[in-house]
Design a protein that fits this description.
Helix content: 25-40%
Order of helices and strands: HEEHEEE
Distance between the termini: 91 Å
Structural class: alpha+beta
Shape: elongated
Number of domains: 1
Mean pLDDT: 82
Strand order of the largest sheet: 3-4-5
Length: 181
Amino acid sequence: MKINRSGFTLVELTIVISVITILAIITVTSYSGIQRRSRDTTRLADTNNIIKAIDVYEGETGTFPATSASPGANGCTGNGYSYSWATDGTWLNPLVTGNFINAAPKPPQNSCTVWYAYLKPAPTDYGCSSRTKPYYVLWIKTEGAVAAPSFSKTFTPCVGSSVTWTANSTNWIIASDNLPS
């Protein structure tokens, strides 16, 4: 009498489940990377639009937009100060109300770990007693999925300053002094 066994052995099932698990992990990881790149690409486009709007604003008004009246509207703080962004983009209101930009770009993900910040200190702030040239700092905190713009550079407002904004793959520092002419 011949016994006909059909089906899979335990070893075969284990191998198939392992392969499916590995493929699922690869898919989820790739999808997550694609999402991060997409958000950082949006941040790069927003950065370029904000810089252009600030440049036009400065050309027409002779000054850079003021920092938001309510920095830290999101409740995030660090490095001794509140970040100047809100979930509704109010820190860009001077650019919007003056028609220098259609709408305030909002980060594709707004949290205490990724954000857009804008600061317009007085020229003599941060221990710069001899600085007379106004400046601004646009700080874009990213997920590091795309390359920073070439003009994102570490910025110290003057020799002997008590502050330095450090640029790297996740901190894009765009200061008016760093922009290409």
